[in-house]
Every structure is written in C-alpha cells, then in structure tokens.
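Data availability excerpt. The first of two example chains:
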Amino acid sequence: KALCEDNYTFAQPGIQRKVKALEELVSRIDESVHRHMQQYEVEYLQFAFRWMNNLLMRELPLRCTIRLWDTYQAEPEGFSHFHLYVCAAFLVRWRKEILEERDFQGQMILLQNLPTMHWGQRGSERAAGRSYRLKFAFADAPNHYKR
C-alpha cells in the first residue's frame, strides 16, 4: 500500500502494523530491551504510535526533523520502511536508560520524552547512521520483521 494510505483511516491499521513491525524488529535487534519493556508491561503502541503517526516530529527539534526527513526522501520507502530502523535505533540509543528504569511509569516518561531537545544536526546524523547500520545488518534476514 502507498505511504499513509491506511494510516489515517478508522483504527489507523497502517500505523498499527508499523508499530507491530517495530516490536518484532526490536525483539531481534536487542532482546534485552524488548524483554525489559515486556517485564514492566510497556506496550510499543503506548509510545511508538506517536513516533509513527508524527514521524518523530514531536521527539526531535525541527532542525533534526528536517535533516532526518531529508534522509527519508533519499531512501527508497524511507518514510514507510527506513523510519522503522530509525525508531529501533532510538531504542538502542537509549538502551542503558531504558534498562535502568525499574517501573512502567519511569519507562513511559523516558520513551515519551526522549532527551533530544538539545540535539543539533550531528544528533540526527548519528541517528541516521545507527539506522543504516541496523538496516544493513538485517537486510538479508528475510524474517527480521514482517512487512
């Protein structure tokens, strides 16, 4: 389906599929983070729905959003496919902080208020770099997430 075709229809099935794909991807990339969030009953839908719905626009300063979206435009299926790797890279980037949180509320506060507001262009470039590494590490694994 085309980008956004079913993202903004009733029940937003396109976004829900992307959130599920992120969960499957993270479970393979960093099982410890995935299990830790499960242990404290953090559902990906509770934080990643916004990440998918707004393409991280609320999580990043505007200058970083512009830089990241420029990368999306350069990538085949950047907004629909590469964005998953960016979101996974965010979880890996804050792995230590996620694992240090020992309750649901602490994890949700972290995941809904990522410490990115002081990022400059380098922050978004590093995020894109981590995302590319994840994409290429899993590119030949046909079951790394279900598209």
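And the second chain:
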Amino acid sequence: LLFLWSIIVSIFGIGGLLGSSGSRYLTVRFGKKKSLLCNNVLMIVAASIMGCSQIAQSFEMILIGRFMCGVSAGLCVPLHHQYVGEISPKKLRGFANSTSSFFWSLGKAIGQISGQRELLGSQARWPMLMASCGIPALVQLVTLPFFPESPPYLLMHKGDQEGCKKAIRQLWGEGQHQAEIDDIMKEKATMKNTKILSVLELVKEPAFRWQLYMIVILTATIQLCGINAV
C-alpha cells in the first residue's frame, strides 16, 4: 500500500514533466487561448475521474486522475505565463506574470486548509476534495471564450494583422497601438534568424552550460530550504 500511494503521489510530477514538454507544440499549433481551453477540459475530466473513484471503488481511477492533473498542471504553467504576458500592456506585464506564482502558492494554501479532517479531509468527503481542482478549470472554461487570442500569436504565427489590431483594441481599449504592433513585428523578424533549440540540444549546447548549472542548483536548493514544510 505504501508503494502504491507513493506512485499515486509522485505520478503527478511525471505528468507535469510530459505536459510542460508538449506546451510549445500546442501553443504554435493551436494558439494560447485554444490550448488553455483544451487544458481546462482535461483538468475537469481528471477531477471527475478522481471524484468518482470512491463510488467505483477503484484506486486506478485516482492514479489516472492524478496523472491527468499533472499533465494539465504542466501545460498550464507555461501557457499561463505566455498568454497573460502577451495580452498585458507593457507597464503591467511584469505584474501580470507574477500572478502565476501568487495563485500557485494560494492554491497550495487553500488545498492544505481544505484537506483538514474538519473540512474535506474526512473519510466521507475526500472525493470532493480531489474533485475540487475542477472548479477553477470550469470557471476559466466559461470565462475565457470572452477573451481574444494573444495578439503576438495572431500576428507572428497566423499573419493576421487585422485580427491582431482587433484583439489589442479589445484588450487595451481604443487608441494608438502602432508601437506595440511594431515591437511584435521586430520580434517576429528576430525569431526568423534564431534557431529554436530542443531540450536535448539545450543541454548539449556549451554556451548555455553555466546558466543550466545555475538553474539546476537553484531549483534543487529551493526544495531543501523548507518551503514544502512551511
């Protein structure tokens, strides 16, 4: 049982690795908005499977649901950063990008509090706790269709200049936004001359070796600083 529950806990991270690895392909192929909408559907399905596991008397459903949750979370982090950063005006872009870390921490805190035995952590209510991850996904699934696609995606990948201008006006209001459009065009021109590296190529590239070492060390020491215990 200990081995089984260890797999159920850790498979979330495996799903997260797979989800984050596939985020680039999805954003280029379908765009940020559509990718987020599909990701919400995946999370709702995962929440439903885990919520029904007790009725079905199936621990396999918890395992599958946790894996799907991990894939969804792995997709969500880069998608959120990219979409929120690209639809925000320049002066609010840094603040908007920081919301991911804030809500990630807030979600963990709410989960810890909700998991107390006095609330949803009891023997009768734990399926509700596991299914609760579908609530934010459902809220975003309902509200996101009212938002436009990312302006840089429309211009850089679709070549839709009119659609880009319409999205910018919807997001930032009427006014002169030619400077922002020019910045996107400059970025598009820069990307044409820049080779996109795969993960394996990035690891092998000598020019990025020390930056990679620093990121690995920082990420590892974060796990040892006691933040999980807090």
